[in-house]
Amino acid sequence: MSLKYRFLDEVSISKQQDSLVYSSKWWAYGTRTELESWMPSPGDSAEFSFLDSDNVLLGKKWAPDGYIIKDCRATALDRFEWDVFVSAESPSFKGNFTYPRDKSNLSSKEEIDVEKGAFTITEEMAGYKWDAAGKRYEDLSLTENPPWSEATDCPFTVRPTKFQINQTIPVAIIKQTIYLAGSPDTYISNFLAFKGIQTIKSQSGRVIESNMAQVNDDKANIFTQWKRAIMVAPSNFIWNSNWKGI
């Protein structure tokens, strides 16, 4: 069986923040595997996606040139029949989703970004709080029950001083995107294990982001896009691996 599909000529246009979104409806008939191979991924070009692979004019009927696929999802009508919803967003959209222009050899591709972030040391992180009179800090390791513990309640291996409370310290955030052959459900154990303190490009940091999404390469093979990020510890500090924050 080969997938059969047609454009239902139902298009709506909406404005979301600073972008225009074109939404369309399609009908498809085939197996789930055929459907998943045909459906475009977020980040694909709306004009040259698999949707119009049999008709180069088809894509232009529902989305302007240069628009990018935002969402694509299917609803089963029966075993082989599907309703498919597809939306495309104007290229001015500045969202977080990234997708390589060259979709060949995805397994060899890696994207690295380094951003400047900030970390604020709170009273609880340092193990202090103002007393009832609001005149001085109480040491929570002496007054709380159970007592505040540097081993588990402090984000760093060395306790900050009371003078560092509410200071906002610059930090580096390292973001990495990789592509793994196969669907996200085959990498659940990897996903769950990526937590706490991890290393990206020889830099150790605390995990602040980890997301997986299914995408397709230029041959319609299924890949898992894994976007993850770590926060490098502020200068003069080392992350405490036993801390449960962030």
Question: Can you walk me through this structure?
Answer:
- It is a single chain.
- This protein is mainly β.
- 10% of the residues lie in helices and 41% in strands.
- It is built from five helices and eleven strands; from the N terminus they run ββαβββαββααβαβββ.
- The strands form three sheets. Strands 5-8-11-10-9 form a five-stranded antiparallel sheet, with no helix packed on it. The chain has a four-stranded antiparallel sheet with strand order 1-2-4-3, with no helix packed on it.
- The longest helix has 7 residues, at 32-38.
- The chain is elongated.
- Residues 93-97 have low confidence and may be disordered.
Question: Can I get a quick summary?
Answer:
The protein is mostly beta strands.
